[in-house]
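Quick review question:
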């Protein structure tokens, strides 16, 4: 490469790649996983049914919180703030922008779908098909820079899912009870919290802009704990995404009568 080549812009690689490993496998699996979740999410969002099991207080994560007049009886735990706008504006659409905003602007997911969907680049040391690169400096990708504000919105949503998990420990007579659905919803909310607080923005909010850690021992201790989770952010991103889908699927199958909830107590 000459100096002029380097000054002209990005390095030019004539060969697509010199790698001999199966570099394409990771972006392929990422594409398949995210595409599967997207298709499932679209179906469930506009399905607008089978999301509430009144006997055991199970609410499907895709419909939490349910804030529309269209919500079935008993599922609107925090009131009906919005009118019933028909089949095109279902209850999940009032909350989905904040959930998607947090996930889509997440540092890990950005890397994942940039590589898997846009091939920008598909893998390290592999040429990409794009002629130029502007990064996240133009619309719509400049919106990625407000990830922190989506993090603020994700906190109360995680809190609401926690409430959903707690009330899911309801028995047949209205008292305390444990079913398979209770444990699935509890596992889901634990993974949601782990993914949320392992976020890079959370780590920066807790320990960023501190000159002397010794003067802030509590924040330093919290920063250390969050940093350990942050090191597992990729794994937690996938685990929480899978748990949301599986928890939602399980509740929908119970609500529709396809499955009977396995009761462990009452």
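Suggested answer, residue by residue:
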């Amino acid at each position: 490469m000459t100096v002029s080549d380097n000054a002209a812009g990005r390095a030019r690689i004539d060969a697509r790649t010199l790698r001999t490993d199966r570099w394409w496998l990771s972006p392929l699996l990422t594409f398949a996983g995210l595409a599967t979740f997207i298709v499932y999410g679209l179906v469930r969002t506009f399905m607008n049914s089978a999301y509430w099991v009144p006997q055991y207080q199970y609410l499907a994560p895709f419909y939490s919180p349910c804030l529309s007049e269209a919500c079935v009886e008993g599922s609107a735990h925090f009131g009906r703030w919005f009118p019933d706008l028909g089949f095109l504006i279902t209850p999940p659409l009032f909350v989905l922008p904040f959930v998607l905003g947090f996930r889509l602007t997440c540092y890990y997911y950005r890397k994942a779908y940039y590589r898997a969907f846009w091939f920008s680049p598909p893998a390290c040391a592999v040429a990409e098909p794009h002629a130029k690169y502007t990064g996240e400096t133009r619309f719509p990708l400049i919106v990625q820079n407000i990830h922190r504000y989506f993090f603020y919105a994700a906190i109360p949503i995680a809190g609401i899912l926690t409430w959903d998990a707690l009330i899911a420990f309801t028995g047949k007579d209205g008292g305390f009870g444990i079913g398979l659905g209770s444990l699935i919803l509890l596992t889901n909310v634990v993974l949601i919290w782990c993914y949320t607080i392992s976020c890079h923005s959370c780590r920066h909010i807790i320990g960023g802009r501190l000159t002397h850690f010794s003067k802030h021992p509590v924040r330093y201790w919290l920063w250390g704990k969050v940093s350990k989770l942050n090191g597992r952010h990729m794994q937690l991103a996938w685990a929480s995404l899978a748990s949301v889908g599986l928890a939602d699927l399980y509740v929908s199958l119970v609500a529709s009568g396809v499955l009977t909830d396995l009761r462990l107590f009452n």
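Why it works: Confidence is low (pLDDT under 50) at residues 1-5. Residues 25-47 form the longest helix (23 residues).
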